[in-house]
């Protein structure tokens, strides 16, 4: 998959994540999704991620997703798998971001029908 920073992509269950993403919305209640990171850290236990409430409300509505206007300020790419710091400027708000809001390239979406993510690093 050829992606660039700023793209919004849809991921399906059991699909490898193609880039580092900010989780925007999911098929699951409360914006949760589940990922397997065994390709990154060897762990086979599923990890939980959750979209911000402010973006989760977009759901699967393509028009709302295509009109998403936000700006991310975050740390530079690094090798820290369990740490991420950033801010999303969206709809007049500044929202804090951490690793629980991100999906890293190489992890696999599990037990979640779909999710949308904004490419942070490609």
From TrEMBL:
One of its GO terms (biological process) is phospholipid translocation. GO terms for molecular function: ATPase-coupled intramembrane lipid transporter activity. It comes from the Eukaryota. InterPro entries: ATPase_P-typ_transduc_dom_A_sf (IPR008250). GO terms for cellular component: plasma membrane; trans-Golgi network. This is Uncharacterized protein.
């Amino acid at each position: 998959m050829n992606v660039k920073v700023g793209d919004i992509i849809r991921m399906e269950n059991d699909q490898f994540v193609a880039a580092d993403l900010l989780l925007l919305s999911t098929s699951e209640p409360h914006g949760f999704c589940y990922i397997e990171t065994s390709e990154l850290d060897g762990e086979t236990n599923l990890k939980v991620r959750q979209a911000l409430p402010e973006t989760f409300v977009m759901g699967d509505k393509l028009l709302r997703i295509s009109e998403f206007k936000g700006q991310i300020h975050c740390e530079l790419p690094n090798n820290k798998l369990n740490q991420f710091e950033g801010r999303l400027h969206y709809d007049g708000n500044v929202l804090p971001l951490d690793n629980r809001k991100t999906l890293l390239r190489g992890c696999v979406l599990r037990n979640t029908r779909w999710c949308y993510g904004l490419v942070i690093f490609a």
